[in-house]
Amino acid sequence: MLDYACGNGVASRALAPFMSTVRGMDISSGMAEQYNIMALKAGYTPTKMQAVQGDLIDPELTPSAELDTPAFFNFDLVVMCMALHHIEDYENMILQLSKRLRPGGILLIVDWVAHYESSGLHNDIRAMNISNGILNRMGFAEDDVKRAYEKAGLEDWSWKWASVPSQVPGESGQFNMKVQILLTAALSATEALADQWPGAEKECGRLGVMKWDPHDLPEGVYPSEIRKCADHPMGAGNYWGWGEYMPDWIPRNPLADRDWTWLRGPN
């Protein structure tokens, strides 16, 4: 897994129990250092979980020889959590992230919905530079991000809204805006468990691990609907908290039942 614009590694630590290796990348050397400190405190070795300084948009700005090594390509999952709105050219950002995926890998972006879209107001104020240029966009419209994903060659697009509004800074004061969860995948084949859906043994003749082509599944079966059996060791469902709309064949996050509402700050 690659966690881009990783900060101190909140997303990485949530997903690390289900990943063989986790790599973080941030344009700030200080953030990469904090990421590594927090990873060690969480009990992860540098072999398992480590971050480096790097900028995929402008590699020369923060040159790192590691970015061109095999260790930073062919990821099963690339995550960018609450950072895309800082990027001026978000289409190029999505393209660069997609280049780090293996065939069949998943690009997951968590960010805000454009205020005009979440409020039902339709206007063309989609981007603005505020807070000394730190915040480049007030959120994203579905069509804009979908088009960027398609330009990057990603398929099986999915766009989901979180159920709880989040506070987003405005030019003055604050206003409510829905946190947007964006998910797409360039899938070639999906490793899944045949016992994740009731008709598996009847249709496939066996249970257990098998490889499915997501474009050639049994009739009426879709990757987004595949869930683990309730008695499977990894548990039922897939609820990841902030990433609760990830495909159901990704195992359940044991941290999902904890109360994370304090992360949103005061209402």
List the topology elements.
Elements: E1 2-4, H1 10-15, E2 22-26, H2 29-41, E3 49-53, E4 75-81, H3 90-98, E5 101-112, H4 115-118, E6 127-130, E7 135-137, H5 142-151, E8 155-169, E9 174-185, E10 190-193, H6 200-204, E11 209-212
Parallel strand pairs: 1-2, 1-4, 2-3, 4-5
Antiparallel strand pairs: 5-9, 6-7, 8-9, 10-11
Keywords: Transferase
Protein name: Methyltransferase
GO molecular function, one term: transferase activity
What does this molecule look like?
- It is a single chain.
- This protein is of the alpha/beta class.
- It folds into 2 domains: 2-185, Vaccinia Virus protein VP39 (Rossmann fold, 3-Layer(aba) Sandwich); 193-267, no CATH class.
- The chain has 6 helices and 11 strands.
- The protein has helices at residues 10-15, 29-41, 90-98, 115-118, 142-151, 200-204; strands at 2-4, 22-26, 49-53, 75-81, 101-112, 127-130, 135-137, 155-169, 174-185, 190-193, 209-212.
- Helix 3 packs across helix 5 (142-151).
- The radius of gyration is 19 Å and the shape is globular.
- It starts with a strand and ends in a 55-residue tail after the last strand.
- The model is unreliable at 118-135, 171-198, 203-212 and 223-265 (pLDDT under 50).
- Keywords: Transferase.
- This is Methyltransferase.
- It holds the Pfam family Methyltransf_23.
